[in-house]
Write a structure and sequence with these properties.
Elements: H1 5-15, H2 19-31, H3 35-55, H4 71-79, H5 88-105, H6 121-132, H7 137-157, H8 162-165, H9 167-185, H10 190-203, H11 220-239, H12 248-261, H13 278-288
Helix pairs in contact: 1-2, 2-7, 3-5, 3-7, 4-5, 5-6, 5-11, 6-7, 6-9, 6-11, 7-9, 9-10, 9-11, 10-11, 10-12
Length: 290
């Protein structure tokens, strides 16, 4: 039905329906599932996301080398302290994003959104925005479907793999997806969702993928937190009327081309960036014994 963000937006605007409606119909057509079956599948995935966003808030989880063990619960306590710079809401969003990363690193069950390395961004943002505005579970799931529709366009036309496009392709696309869904949850238009997606992606354009010791922990977890915040500020920019003159499809194409320009050392190989620092090398030796 659609193969680009432009087509997706045109279909939503022509019929005067939210983006999620077009995405649901597209999924029904290609999967031969009924609407009820599509929604049930998404409800199941939402349940996994919700559980991973909450699991590490109260108890540290064991991770390889203990590199990020306890970061979610620490951040969550800080969010409740009344002494934050960014406020309780933002810090709770970050804590939930970190929780998903901690669950992933402890071999727990997560939902790749769109990848395991960026699994915390969409859940943290949409769960928290839904909570903030007292939305129903169905509302949040619809926003999640909007996010998946945009992510699917990126998968079809570019990449979400850090090994191919750097962290911009993983956490960047996740931030865009989350921003688009947050706009819908906040009552914004389909066009605003597209603006938010573009803004989030340009804010992280060019970010490398440089996991310490080759593990999806540092700096992946911290980038889940930062890009959840990127999603929120991009959504607010769009809701406030900010316009980005470059069409969303061209932004995605630019991200893809930038990813291809990155040297192999900066694409998930742990051979460059923060992973190549002396301390990172010592951490690697300590974990793997070489």
């Amino acid at each position: 039905m659609y193969h680009s963000c432009r087509q997706l937006l045109e279909m939503a605007e022509t019929r005067n329906v939210p983006i999620h409606e077009i995405v649901i119909e597209n999924e029904m057509k290609h999967s031969d599932m009924s609407r009820a079956e599509v929604m049930e599948h998404m409800k199941e995935r939402y349940g996994i996301m919700f559980a991973s966003a909450e699991k590490a808030l109260d108890q540290p989880l064991p991770t390889e080398g203990s590199l990020i063990t306890g970061i979610a619960s620490n951040q969550y306590r800080h969010s409740q302290s009344g002494a934050t710079l960014c406020g309780r809401f933002i810090n709770t969003v970050m804590a939930r994003a970190l929780s998903c990363s901690e669950v992933n690193a402890s071999m727990g069950k997560i939902c790749a959104m769109p990848t395991a390395g960026s699994c915390g961004i969409v859940p943290a943002v949409l769960i928290s925005v839904g909570e903030k505005y007292e939305k129903t579970q169905e509302d949040v799931i619809n926003a999640l479907i909007t996010a998946t529709g945009l992510g699917a366009v990126v998968v079809e036309n570019a990449t979400v793999a850090g090994s191919e496009g750097g962290c911009q392709a993983e956490c960047g696309v996740a931030a865009g997806m989350a921003a688009a869904g947050a706009v819908e949850l906040s009552g914004g238009t389909p066009a605003m969702s597209m603006e938010a997606f573009s803004l989030a992606l340009i804010n992280i354009m060019g970010l490398v993928c440089d996991p310490v010791a080759g593990l999806v922990q540092i700096p992946c977890a911290q980038r889940n937190a930062s890009q959840a915040v990127n999603a929120l500020l991009s959504a607010d920019l769009a809701l406030g009327g900010s316009k980005f003159p470059i069409p969303t499809d061209e932004v995605i194409d630019a991200m893809y081309k930038v990813g291809k320009l990155l040297p192999v050392q900066l694409r998930e190989t742990a051979m460059g960036g923060i992973a190549a620092t002396e301390t990172a090398k010592r951490i690697t030796d300590k974990i793997f014994g070489h």
